[in-house]
Amino acid sequence: MNRQNLIEQFPLIEKMKKAEEVIWFNPNLTKTEDALKNLSVTSEMVQDASDRLDRFASYLQIAFPETAKSNGIIESPLVEIPAMATAMKELFQTDFNGEILLKCDSNLPISGSIKARGGIYEVLKTAETLAIREGLLKETDDYAILANKEMREFFARYSIAVGSTGNLGLSIGIMSAKIGFHVTVHMSSDAKQWKKDMLREKGVEVIEYDSDYSIAVEEGRKQAEKDPTCFFIDDENSTDLFMGYAVAASRLKKQLEQQGKKVDEDHPLFVYLPCGVGGGPGGVAFGLKLLFGDYVHCYFAEPTHSPCMLLGMMTGLHEDIAVDEIGLDNKTDADGLAVGRPSGFVGKTMEQLISGSYTISDEKMYTLLALLADTEQVFLEPSALAGTTGPIHLASSGVALNNATHIAWATGGGMVPEHVKEVYYAKGKLLLNH
Ligand SMILES: *Cc1c(COP(=O)(O)O)cnc(C)c1O
Q1: What is the pLDDT of residues 328-347, one digit of tens each?
Q2: What is the 8-class DSSP label of residue 274?
Q3: Where does the Tryptophan synthase beta chain-like PALP domain lie (predicted)?
Q4: CA-to-CA distance for 16 and 24, rounded, in angstroms?
Q5: d(CA 20, CA 339)
Q6: Which CATH number fits domain 3-42+65-111+242-432: 3.40.605.10, 3.40.50.1100, 3.40.630.30, 3.40.920.10?
Q7: What whole-number distance in Å separates Cα of residue 289 and Cα of residue 297?
Q8: How many helices and strands in the chain, by DSSP H and E?
Q9: Atom 11 in ligand 1: residue holding the nearest Cα
Q10: Which class would CATH give 114-236?
């Protein structure tokens, strides 16, 4: 592809360059059944991940007592937010049909963000593989034995490395340290201080870089290559992370059924997923497409300064293009989303399954943060608000939303310390009152 002509071929880039909010509808969206045929990932792989998490439930209840009330299953609530819906319609002077729900991954146990799905899953899978290989564990065992001292000593012979903007480091760091691995988290410059402090308190080695996320990932990769007992968790290419995220779909389906929310031909489901490198939102969306097919419409949401997945998917260049090539600085307070180059694996996998993608400014994320806190008493971190404007975007673009259920995926915020919450809220409140 001739990069000189990118703007001519994709005029939306004109607006993206200026960090304006945009919405893109995917022209390659395909009938789900046909799209799934071309993929290397399957529903069997998601089922396998789900079964593995079930096996670990007895261990997780011991290792993290806060998971006991859900019997060792790491899951989050799905809640109605009618007051927020009303307030948003007012704020944006835009009406939309359908009910909006919040999927509170901010409340996920252990690490308080969507990373508690993929990150923890991959650490557990690594541990299981090693223990089975050494004859210390069978799939039919009660995995509670993994909490024993001898098992911890066994895992201490191995290490885990990961590069992160923050939340993936938290989830992998906390889980790895708990099960006994030595763990190193390579943190990008935008990672928040409190995340580094929290990890160090839990015995995680944190290495800081002055550069962005891609460099942190690269350093993690290099560290692991030198050492055969070190496993690198690859946020850009990992199928395991993706599968850990995808398990969310069957859990969500049950919640929708329990709450009497229909999803069928006459009751479409719209899901809005904040997107960084793509694994989290991609995995969840993949799982949902497997279960709901053409009745579910998945949209990614990215910061105006870091629309890497939109750029990669729209141009078809995927990981061969980064946001700096269109003059964007990849600077955003939405730290989980501060990613300049998308995952090629996710982009290619989701190429025919994603309905579209939109961008949102940092100011709007802060404004919505305060609005949600005021209307629903729910606190999220800035990134996690990116999904909430989905219905507004679609309604403004004339998409039919009759009988729709909208789900804004609230991807994080549960671990944010009180003093940081106050700063976030004050910032949002100021913008809201303007
Ligand atoms: C990581 C993260 C995301 C996006 O997940 P990716 O796998 O990076 O696309 C969204 N929200 C929050 C709060 C995150 O930490």
Answers
A1: 999 999 988 999 999 999 99
A2: E
A3: 71-388
A4: 11
A5: 17
A6: 3.40.50.1100
A7: 8
A8: 19, 11
A9: 411
A10: alpha beta
